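To close the section, here is one more complete example, presented without commentary so you can practise reading it yourself. The ligand is 6-O-alpha-D-glucopyranosyl-D-fructose.
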Amino acid sequence: MRRDRDRYDVWWRDAVVYQVYPRSFADSDGDGIGDLGGLLEHIDHLDHLGVDVVWLSPIYPSPQDDNGYDVADYRDVDPVFGSLATLDAVTEELHRRDMRLVLDLVVNHTSDEHPWFIDSASGPDSPRRDWYWWRPPRPGFTGGEPGAEPTNWAGFFSGSTWEFDPASGEYYLHLFSRKQPDLNWENPEVRHAVYDTMRWWLDQGVDGFRMDVINLISKRTDLPDAPLAPGARHGDGFPFYASGPRIHEFLQEMNREVFRGWDVPVLSIGEMPGVTIDDAADFTDPARGELDMVFQFEHMGVDHGPDGKWSGAELDRGHLMSTLVRWQEGLAERGWNSLYWNNHDQPRVVSRFGDPERFWRESATALAAVLHLQRGTPFIYQGEEIGMTDMPFTSVDELRDIESLNFVAETLADDADALPRVMERIRRIGRDNARTPVQWDAGPAAGFTTGQPWIAVNPNHVSINAAAQRDDPASVYSFYRELIALRHREPLVVTGDFRALDSNAPIVAFVRSDGTEELVLRANLSSEPAASADPGGELVLGNHAEPSRGDMLRPWEVVVTRRPVGELIPR
Ligand code: ISL
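Output:
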């Protein structure tokens, strides 16, 4: 059942978003790289699944240093993915089927091959010099030598955030790869060039934007050094370049300049590493006119160690759930949550938080229900709906992601014996886990391409694939379909208040209520049976053919019931 778009105050309130990472989705021309033609061929899959919005990761012309998150032209399509005409066909087909299209907007930085940067780098007198962050070497240095960088910040992709340009004797800032120079949003010409581009896409029929690292566009202009750990070359400059003094002003300006006045309200989703609950409430408070929702990262950090993602920590599912519960509570009165387990930067949820060996189907479905029945807009990342798992990468040759490859190079430069440890961490947390091709069927290359795939296909595609699951009512896919349909028909899932009953691992239990009726979800996030008081009520959803009634839940079992408000739940 499609939803009724006019039921809520804004069209996206009861929507489910599906992320397509085009490179890995489906290849239509046999070059081994997914493309828009492949997306067109598989729109039926998205329609059948029942999602409402497609978020398309970058399709713009790009040297592909960071798989398209390095944009060389904001108003065209990379030939590897198709053309503006193919994109039009995608938009049209989605609209025909009552789905909407959100593009990825990557404007914290451009590619170093973008004409703006080429112009800026042509010399200190370029009219666009100030469009990027150029700075002289540290006093006492000539530039290019270790320690001469204007600040000591560590980049997201290892090394320094500064690249020396011998021609001008200055450095430019790049928080990500050296091929991703940061735009200077202090300059109003930059901001208006971005707003023009956004309006141009909306004129083409696009329905909204997912905005890459949008909280990094306002930085402190004095660029202070970060505190340094003993022996470290680089420190964490995050507090100085994230959510800077003008972030709200810039987003309000963008909102005024771009989002107002369209027939269909534009959907705006800000990706915001490090965002706090209080900030997120401000960013997404409709009264402030900034964004509709933000991606927060707290629950993605629960298995990161003290030194970030490359240092591991023991997974504590209680901590995972209490983090999500805090976000539910924090954005209850003001703002709106986005809900996600996966995207193109994160390992696969069933491998990360579930039990892919012993309870693959049960853990994939329990985790799905726990996420989708929270308050907010759920996002499904391609392949999540069929329970795709992490890839058993064994060698560096199989890796494609610049973040992982830079991490390997940097670590091995210090310690030549570190490879086994590095590979172990990459297998667990590396971004390539999300980027192996979508497993369409059990055939060669999983039906992704007739050519040689750009990154290896997971060997488990012979058993985990879309063809095998589509018509199986007990499949992970059918469970996702059911969750989406439930959101579309059940206002409690969309607007019901959220109240946590239990987030003591391994049990998570919460209630969604409108004051009269409530949905009660109970899930066992472990591979052993666990006790959880049965609240009674009519059965709404379960991930077993015969859902448990009573106070015990099977491993990775989830049960949802509906009951009148006010009955005491036995403890
Ligand atoms: O992937 C991460 C951790 O491994 C994050 O730190 C990620 O780099 C951060 O969330 C920003 O991500 C976004 O911008 C990057 C791009 O590489 C990512 O793919 C994108 O989602 C730079 O554009």
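Once you have examined the tokens, check your reading against these statements. The pocket of 6-O-alpha-D-glucopyranosyl-D-fructose is lined by residues 66, 69, 106, 156, 176, 212-213, 271, 273, 309, 344-345, 403, 431 (CB under 6 Å). The two ends are 37 Å apart (CA to CA).
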